[in-house]
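hey m, so remember when u said the tokens were messed up on ur end? i reran from scratch. heres the input so u can diff it against urs
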Amino acid sequence: MTKEYRQHVFSPPPGAVDLLLIRHGESEPARPGQSFPMVDGHGDPALHENGHRQAAAVGARLRNETLAALYVTTLQRTHQTAAPLAGFLGLTPIIEADLREVCLGDWDGGLYRIKAAEGAPEFQRAIANQEWGELPGAETTKQLHDRVAAGLARIAARHPDQRVAAVVHGGVIGAALAIASGGEPFAFNGAANGSISRIVITKDRMIIRGFNDCSHLDVA
């Protein structure tokens, strides 16, 4: 019989963590003259009604996964998004503070959304230069990337040869995939609320396996 050589099927390298990055569901809208509640300088809105539907869809999508742990950040929208999945799997979410959203400085608390919609010059510069630090008082892109890398490294060290999930933020997913790919800093910004991305992390490399999977969501 002729020997056959099948196409390669990816599996995580020995010792790697297989990490699902879930963006939280849609949060409450910003309103002129009103600030979101604040936690350590970060706006902390709760989920919008649509965000709760997205959280339920995430839970239903992943309810049969074998996850060693489920991570969230310090901000309530990640806890609320994680709740359905945590209930299905019997997991208690673990906080990883370094995976909280980019600090938007003077524009945190909801003002960022308003300024972006208005096309403020600072927002335009931030997008053009791929630099969060263009916003008044915001952390820099490097500061964001450094702390996201540190948070991911801690998770990887805790979970060799395991699959875990983390409910995080759009800016954090963008940072993680930019680091993993070596691409432009904002290349992966804009992951949809409730979407699932996937990276595999070893001691010396990060491998992107998926970005912005929305197949479980009603995106019409």
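this time it looks ok to me. The first strand starts at residue 17 and ends at 23. if urs says something different then somethings off w ur setup not the seq
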